[in-house]
Amino acid sequence: MRAVRVTAQQRLAVQDIDLHPEPGEVLLAVRDCGICGTDLHALRYPETFNTQPGTILGHEFSGVVAEVTRGAGPWRPGDRVVSIPAMTCGACPECTAGYDWRCVRSLGHGLNHAAIPGAFAEYVRVSPHALFSIPDTLSDRHAALTEPLAVALHSLNRVRLAPGEPCIIMGAGPIGLFTLVWAKLRAAHPIVVSDPAPARRNLAQALGADAALDPNQADPTATLRELAHGAWPAVVFECVGTPPALQEAMRLTGRNGRVAVTGVCLQPYQLQPMTAHGRELEVHYVFAYTRAEFQEALATLARGAIPADQLISDIITLDEVPAMFTALAQPSTQVKVLVEPQLTR
């Protein structure tokens, strides 16, 4: 099969490799796979992620069952599915409680050389316990948004965002915009989005933000308080992932407020803890999601409540992946980029 692999020079190249499922696994023909910020991090910070030559990235995918090995039922060839991107046992207390990512045997897809190969490829190996049927009303492309939408939903649940609560979303990249979509569905109000990129601010407003501003030109909290008749932000979602971002998120939050740290920062940063002490803030770090949240994201997509077409900005081939990774190092108009291994130009 053809797959995008990390080279010895920490670049990406399309190569031909063999891939065979192990007993108890399912082999999927990949239909769509989203490029995540974590994929970019894995290539940029190979020591942190153990991204060795030969690694195949990609963990936001939909596919069609191509092969079912012994013990991997009840799936059948031709089934359309999405997958939690981890090999799990499906039977331990964490798995049965819905926390697949905490499974003691969990191996994630595509984030390091020791992991299961990811889905920037024609085929991917998956655990039968991690699969969910795609409803007939949902396309493969839209279904591939399930995984990042589940992450954003988990961030709302972590900070218990309630209807009518004012919030700020720092960053209008994919995870920030997905957070905005969920916040609108939960009837948070007002919602202020901050991002220095004009195209992303415009999309945030098109998706229903009450205000979208450049944080270098205006203060998000001041803007929110004008819209909220003096109320302070109850929740700030940090979806940026840079060293200054968490300190700024705490500064923006009101007393007894909550901060969700969804942006992944791989560099050391300094904090002034008194900012949080003085306001008695809650700071919640966000990682992955539960099975129930993954299912809710899939069901919400299926009933048409997510503006999926607005969230997908680019659809590319495997051969176009290396150039897109370079372009995403300085993002402009891209939101969610989907890779389609079967697509040809």
Tell me what the structure shows.
The structure is a single chain. Helix 5 packs across helix 6 and helix 5 crosses helix 11. 46% of the residues are buried. The strands form 4 sheets. Strands 3, 4, 5, 8, 9, 16 and 17 form a 7-stranded mixed β-sheet that branches. The protein is α/β, with parallel strands linked by helices and 345 residues long. It is globular, with a radius of gyration of 20 Å. Strand 14, helix 10 and strand 15 form a beta-alpha-beta unit.
Approximate shape: globular
**Proportion of helical residues:** 25-40%
Name the assembly state.
Answer: single chain
- Helical stretch tally: 13
Helix-strand topology string: EEEHHEEEHEEEHHEHEHEHEHEHEHHEHE
Percent of sequence in beta strands: 15-25%
Give the radius of gyration. 20 Å
Annotation, overall tally of beta strands: 17
Low-confidence stretches: none
First CA to last CA: what distance? 18 Å
Main beta sheet strand tally, sense and closure:
7 strands, mixed
Please tell me the overall pLDDT: 94
Structural class: alpha/beta
Summed up:
It is built from 13 helices and 17 strands. The chain has 345 residues and is α/β, with parallel strands linked by helices.
What layout of secondary structure does this protein have?
Layout: E1 2-6, E2 12-16, E3 26-34, H1 37-44, H2 46-49, E4 60-68, E5 80-83, E6 86-87, H3 93-96, E7 107-108, E8 123-126, E9 131-133, H4 140-143, H5 146-159, E10 167-170, H6 174-185, E11 191-194, H7 198-206, E12 211-213, H8 220-227, E13 235-238, H9 245-252, E14 258-261, H10 274-279, E15 282-285, H11 291-302, H12 308-311, E16 312-316, H13 321-328, E17 336-339
Parallel strand pairs: 10-11, 10-13, 11-12, 13-14, 14-15, 16-17
Antiparallel strand pairs: 1-2, 3-4, 3-8, 3-17, 4-5, 5-9, 6-7
Helix pairs in contact: 5-6, 5-11
